[in-house]
Amino acid sequence: MFETVTIALDWLGVVAFATTGALVASRKQMDIIGFTLLGVVTGIGGGTLRDVLLGAPVFWVTEPAYLIACVLVSGIVFFTAHIPQSRYRFLLWMDAIGLALFAVTGAEKAWYAGADGIVAVAMGVITATFGGIIRDLLGGESPVILSREIYASAALAAAVIFTSLLALGAPRELALAIGLLVRAAALHYGWSLPRYRQRPGRPHEGPR
Amino acid sequence: MFETVTIALDWLGVVAFATTGALVASRKQMDIIGFTLLGVVTGIGGGTLRDVLLGAPVFWVTEPAYLIACVLVSGIVFFTAHIPQSRYRFLLWMDAIGLALFAVTGAEKAWYAGADGIVAVAMGVITATFGGIIRDLLGGESPVILSREIYASAALAAAVIFTSLLALGAPRELALAIGLLVRAAALHYGWSLPRYRQRPGRPHEGPR
Amino acid sequence: MFETVTIALDWLGVVAFATTGALVASRKQMDIIGFTLLGVVTGIGGGTLRDVLLGAPVFWVTEPAYLIACVLVSGIVFFTAHIPQSRYRFLLWMDAIGLALFAVTGAEKAWYAGADGIVAVAMGVITATFGGIIRDLLGGESPVILSREIYASAALAAAVIFTSLLALGAPRELALAIGLLVRAAALHYGWSLPRYRQRPGRPHEGPR
């Protein structure tokens, strides 16, 4: 039963991210191929990098249904992107959902592949953030991803909590549920971290 | 005999893309090392990603002659880039040639490595487009690649037709010839796909 | 004994690059997670790409201490980035040190993995430059990296000299020392290469 849950969450994450990629394409008024490329890259990018770094076979090469799903989602968005009241808000929500799911399933895959705890956390963060980073680079958005605090912090929190619980021997289901709950709480309450601030009287330096 | 043809096409693609990389370097007035880096990355980038995703040994690590060819091409462009009447048009042509060849040879390599049809198509598109994407990101061009419709669409068309013919059992030579012909026709007649358009009365939304 | 030296140099390179990543984060006033992500990516990015291309296990997956070091360095920079008189100059120096070390240790790893001479040189350059390229792309700096001549040229010079000496049968220690010395001399004397210049009377062409 649990296997099924993990797989379902993974699929949900892929669909959510593919949707955000296609939404960025619609904001840039690309053609349907642009939609598809951006949808596919965003949907499978994070998991691809995770698999390559782990030396595992890339998941969509062995299971092409993921690829097909991203293509379908992109096509659907192409014809329906004008429907939601605010595409931008919809994009943010899809992004948050994908992030939460991938942070946990990414860490899980690395953990069960025998990786160290901190490596599993890193893989969760990579899986959760890489697709969106590529999406923004290709879509010509300034890669502000790292300065949107909720983004990476939340992925990290979910991955850390999930992996810690696994390492402590908690049952997988519990770890997964708590990891996702923390992510939801962070979103709901707008938790964020302090940012680095220039000390007063320090002029900005350097040519770039 | 056919082996030789495939290898020759692959080489031609590498040389064409290396040329476009070096031409972007000349537009940015880089030094000779910048020419070489951009030429090498553009020439071998797509095939490198394809091999990594397939879990195959990276082609230029086992066959360094490809690397050497990119270096030589970049050097030649450094000393001759002022000759063509219009470097920009020359760049577009080289790009189109490289794209056509890589879409087909990329799909072919994946197909004969045992990948599924849709994965072979994806590998063709990746091989054909990734080098140019990296070139534009590194060269500081806005990555408009996805909005130049002819670009990805043509790579996709060539890869789809080639792979479909292979899957249907057509002889490799025929599939290759038709794949390339479609690409040439698309270029010649300027075939393109409809783009997503904002519906009237919808203001642009969101902060980014 | 020599093993220890190589490992120490590799560690020094990782720390130097992680520092530059965190310094870019401080210039962008990111939160502590942004510091960590940028520090980690810059510190281990080059070596990661090298390992993936060589088909070797990624070094920080098998040896997570590197990952931990990058996290610690990023945290330290978060709390001390206001101390140096000029963060920008400090960043340049750290970058130069990391570059010199990685160009040599990157080429060395490829060489002892059985790669061809030119492939070893390419791996040196990749290891030395990729982390910084990713840092600049993610940090939203225009990727001018290829136009800062000292950058790639110096990495290339160090990698070429080191690999040539190895190929000629020189003892590893000597090759390493000379490779680093050349890099230091290039920095000290400001050696650079001629850049491509527009010929007079040639208007800038093309739409991009």
Briefly, what is this?
With 208 residues, chain A is mainly alpha-helical.
Largest interface, with Cβ-Cβ < 8 Å? A-B, 40 and 36 residues
Largest sheet of chain A: none
Count every helix of chain A, treating DSSP H or I runs of 4 or more residues as helices.
Answer: 8
Low-confidence residue ranges of chain A: 200-208
Order of helices and strands of chain A: HHHHHHHH
Q: How many extended strands of chain A?
A: 0
Distance between the termini of chain A: 54 Å
Helix content of chain A: over 70%
Our estimate of the beta-strand percent of chain A is under 5%
The tally of domains of chain A stands at 1
**Overall 3D geometry of chain A?**
globular
Q: Report the average pLDDT across residues of chain A.
A: 80
Oligomer: homotrimer
Radius of gyration of chain A over alpha carbons?
A: 18 Å
What structural class do the secondary elements of chain A suggest? Answer: mainly alpha
